[in-house]
Design goal:
Layout lengths: L2 E5 L2 E4 L4 E8 L6 E8 L6 E8 L5 E5 L7 E6 L4 E6 L8 E9 L12 E2 L3 E6 L1
Length: 127
């Protein structure tokens, strides 16, 4: 079965950095769009970033306005892993971060479109 396993969360001071990783198994990774979502206490799950298969070996990246310029998504198909490099972290970035996967070729920022989900990793940014 498909499994997504996140790692890399933790506690960091404002202005610091973290890199999240998500390793997938049970799917043809290179053909899947991979996304990162987050959910803060009392709030709905929100889109953070996605890297979409655009055919052959091309991928397109998307970012929420709140993280553009601070976060970078990347993937290593040889390792079945997607990364989220988070720089200049702010207290409002505090949330549980989830990795998600969907079959590729059509970009989406909607959580409902993603078929597989990881268990989440906590990111806490102190002021």
């Amino acid at each position: 079965q498909v499994q997504l396993v996140e790692s890399g969360g933790g506690l960091v001071q404002a202005g610091g950095s973290l890199r999240l990783s998500c390793t997938a198994s049970g799917l043809t990774f290179r053909l899947y769009d991979m996304g990162w979502f987050r959910q803060a206490p009392g709030k709905e799950r929100e889109f953070v970033s996605a890297i979409t298969w655009a055919g052959t070996i091309s991928y397109l990246s998307q970012y929420a306005d709140s993280v553009r310029g601070r976060f970078t998504i990347s993937r290593d198909n040889a390792k079945n892993t997607v990364y989220l490099q988070m720089n200049s972290l702010k207290p409002e970035d505090t949330a549980v971060y989830y990795c998600a996967a969907k079959p590729g070729l059509e970009r989406s920022r909607r959580a409902i479109d993603y078929e597989y989900w990881g268990q989440g990793t906590q990111v806490t940014v102190s002021s």
